[in-house]
Specification:
Layout (H helix, E strand, L loop, with lengths): L5 E3 L2 E3 L4 E2 L8 H10 L3 E3 L3 E2 H15 L22 H13 L4 E6 L17 E5 L1
Parallel strand pairs: 3-4, 4-6, 5-6
Antiparallel strand pairs: 1-2, 6-7
């Protein structure tokens, strides 16, 4: 068989077939089939700062919708906050543990979310590769 090894972003791949970012990456049974078929790497969906901000704003609006309608309803949902990028990172980590090919993922943000070590360049995606 021909040698199809190549490199992508400095990472050696067994072949140049890469599963692009799509909804397929969130379906474990599909990922296993694709990996068995011989995929060389997987690109996970990007997470954008604007997406986190919008979801956080929507959550805040929903949680405060009924506040202050009467004295007993001032704090119906005290202390709830949006998880930010934690769910996204959890799903990436779960994918990485379930496959034996490199996974490429990015977080596109200007500001550093709390608890994450990110590159502070202007608007450039931060890529992390897991093997």
């Amino acid at each position: 068989m021909a040698n199809l090894t190549t490199t992508y972003m400095g990472v050696e791949l067994k072949n140049p077939l890469i599963l692009g970012a799509s909804n397929l990456v969130s379906k474990p049974e599909v990922i296993k089939q694709i990996e068995e078929a011989g995929i060389g790497a997987i690109v996970y969906r990007s997470l954008f700062e604007e997406q986190i901000q919008l979801e956080s704003l929507q959550m805040d609006e929903l949680l405060s919708e009924y506040e202050e309608r009467n004295a007993e309803m001032t704090d119906l949902f005290p202390g709830l906050k949006h998880a930010g990028p934690k769910e996204h990172l959890y799903n990436v980590e779960k994918l990485v543990k379930s496959v034996d090919v490199p996974v490429f993922a990015s977080l596109n943000a200007i500001y550093e979310p709390p608890g994450l070590n990110m590159h502070r360049s202007s608007r450039k995606p931060v890529w992390q590769v897991w093997k």
